[in-house]
């Protein structure tokens, strides 16, 4: 099966980037949002990001027009999913929101359509069980910023079949991404490896081993990381890091994933990183 048209549900940080890459690779998109102002904001972000690519001569001005023309923003899940082959859900990381979205998708999608979630930490198997087609349900875990980052972690739920995996792998390659297969366990591979490193960096600060700047300097200069773990934690959002660590902690029941008390305290204080102007660094 070839994917000829997709729906992307949610046009926030991840959804607008996902719509951007499908449309830029000539796969038309229905982009579904809850309010016109959110849909307009998503389209404005895509426009701005495409314009940056034009100015860097990565795409032509005509490519930009064609890409924007192939994204159709809508406020209706029923309308947006009824004529597509693949649905990629990128609504907030909240099980109840995702549940209501997948129930609406299930009621309106074509029988052959593949369902994919961009969730970072909710079980693909659990989301798949909300639908009548767990064999056609899969994780497509893109990375921020989507038009730039090459990786798509393709997460197989307990019942995902080979055909679904193969179609999604092939489609990811058409987007000029590198698909990497992983199985559905808490944190997949990306967050299971990354979050304990960030957590340990926070313990180092908490225990006075080194300042945030020096922890990051060690990891940049000694391990060739482009960005230190604490700067990265600020960029991801300390609340998001805490949520994912809690998913790992509860999912494995293993104390090695215990969130650092300093992380909990910073989230309680509203110091969430870049988005609030302060985290391990000051952005004000
Ligand atoms: N931000 C990241 O770096 C990142 C990376 C990988 C995966 N993810 C995952 O991607 C998903 C989306 O995250 P995000 O950062 O883009 O969130 P976000 O809050 O930026 O965007 C979510 C969007 O979904 C919209 N939305 C909410 N309910 C909706 C509904 N019922 N129908 C249609 N749209 C709806 C919101 O209006 C919002 O624009 C989450 O599951 C998250 O775990 C995020």
Question: Care to describe what's here?
Answer:
This protein is an alpha/beta fold and 284 residues long. The chain has two domains: 6-183, Rossmann fold (3-Layer(aba) Sandwich); 191-274, N-(1-d-carboxylethyl)-l-norvaline Dehydrogenase, domain 2, CATH 1.10.1040.10. 49% of the residues lie in helices and 13% in strands. The chain contains twelve helices and eight strands. The protein has helices at residues 13-24, 36-55, 61-69, 77-81, 95-108, 124-128, 162-174, 190-206, 212-223, 229-236, 238-252, 261-268; strands at residues 6-9, 29-32, 71-74, 86-89, 114-117, 137-142, 151-156, 178-183. Strands 3-2-1-4-5-6-7-8 form an eight-stranded mixed β-sheet, with helices on both faces. α5 (95-108) links the parallel β4 (86-89) and β5. The longest helix has 20 residues, at 36-55. It is globular, with a radius of gyration of 19 Å. The mean pLDDT is 97. The protein binds nicotinamide-adenine-dinucleotide (NAD). Nicotinamide-adenine-dinucleotide is lined by residues 9-15, 32-34, 38, 90-93, 97, 101, 118-120, 141-144.
């Amino acid at each position: 099966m070839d994917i000829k048209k997709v729906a992307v549900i949610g046009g926030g940080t991840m959804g607008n980037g996902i719509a951007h890459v499908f449309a830029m690779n000539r796969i038309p998109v229905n982009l579904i949002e809850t309010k016109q102002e959110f849909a307009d904001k998503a389209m404005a972000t895509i426009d701005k990001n495409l314009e940056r690519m034009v100015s860097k001569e990565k795409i032509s001005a005509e490519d930009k027009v064609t890409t924007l023309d192939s994204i159709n923003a809508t406020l209706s899940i029923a309308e947006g999913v009824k004529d597509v082959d693949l649905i990629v859900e990128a609504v907030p990381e909240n099980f109840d929101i995702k549940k209501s979205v997948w129930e609406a998708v299930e009621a309106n999608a074509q029988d052959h359509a593949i369902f994919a979630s961009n969730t970072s930490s909710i079980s693909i198997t659990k989301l798949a069980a909300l639908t009548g087609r767990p064999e056609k349900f899969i994780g497509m875990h893109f990375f921020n910023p989507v038009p730039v980052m090459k990786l798509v972690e393709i997460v197989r739920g307990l019942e995902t079949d080979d055909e679904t995996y193969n179609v999604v792998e092939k489609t990811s390659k058409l987007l000029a991404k590198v698909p990497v297969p992983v199985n559905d366990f808490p944190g997949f591979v990306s967050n299971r490896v990354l979050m304990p490193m960030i957590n340990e960096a926070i313990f180092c600060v908490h225990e006075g081993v080194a300042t945030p700047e020096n922890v990051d300097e060690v990891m940049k200069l000694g391990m060739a990381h482009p960005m230190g773990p604490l700067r990265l934690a600020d960029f991801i959002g300390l609340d998001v890091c805490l949520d994912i660590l809690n998913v790992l902690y509860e999912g494995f029941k293993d104390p090695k994933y215990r969130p650092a008390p300093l992380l909990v305290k910073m989230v309680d204080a509203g110091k969430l990183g870049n988005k609030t102007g302060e985290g391990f660094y000051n952005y004000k």
